[in-house]
Amino acid sequence: MAKKKLEDLNLLDDFLFGSMVNYPEVGEAFVREILKIIFGKDFGKLTVVPQKVYYGTDTDKHGARLDVFLEEDPADQLEDTATVYDMEPDKNDDPKAVAALPRRVRFYHAKIDANSLKSGESYKMLKNVFVILITPFDPLGANRMLYTIRSMCEEIPSLPYEDGARTLFLYTKGTQGNLSEELCKLLHYMEHTTKENATTDSLKHIHQMVEIVKHDGEVSLNYMKTLEWEEMLINQGQKQGLLQGQKMEQANTERERLRADQATERAERAEKDLMLLKKKLAAMEAKGAVKKLP
Predict the structure, then answer these.
(1) DSSP per-residue string spanning 230-268
(2) What are the domain boundaries of the chain?
(3) pTM attached to this predicted model
């Protein structure tokens, strides 16, 4: 399949989304505009960390890579507890990957929590965490534009139980749910990132930033390098697959040769045993121990 040109990428493509966040002149403003549309409120200063990596506690433990790690400046928050946002697009609609989404975001929450509370701090200081995934496939199968996941008491769903953890699945093609018109337009724009779909002031501002990034020579060069790297990995995979196939064919040929050699050895051994038996029988006949066969 032909690779997309940089100008044809949309905001669900990892490269463009990551480039937007990484771009010094627009990164913070870009994610602030998106969060403003999703949550319907203004955001102040944000600390933006593109592709924050949480390594495993040991070499055999699984780590996590978060596409965009955002943290509000405590001075801009009404509450004492800080809030962290992990936001990323996800186009992997492989059924196994989709089925694993709930456990994947559970793991994200766990890794963020484990690294956000200093030794000796009260659990009250544990940061609020919002994990936000934007997908062009239905993550939970109910055709909703937004799925908001939180902890609750199963016996009394209305009972307040606030642990500060939220997961938001935003489905770009969903039709169910009562969302703001601007959020609906954002979801469409994320998948179809064109000037024609930037129909609100916020989306026009976002699209101006997208155009700046797409027309940057260094970003274009990095995209070419990314394509070359992906092609190299594919070629390596194909070569490894070919080598693996050749090794398997050689192994099968060797097994067949070994089986043939073993069959030949068994036949030769049987022939020798038969000749030896005939000699013994002839000797016994000569001594009269047995009657000579007609």
Answers:
(1) HHHHHHHHHHHHHHHHHHHHHHHHHHHHHHHHHHHHHHH
(2) 8-215, 217-294
(3) 0.73
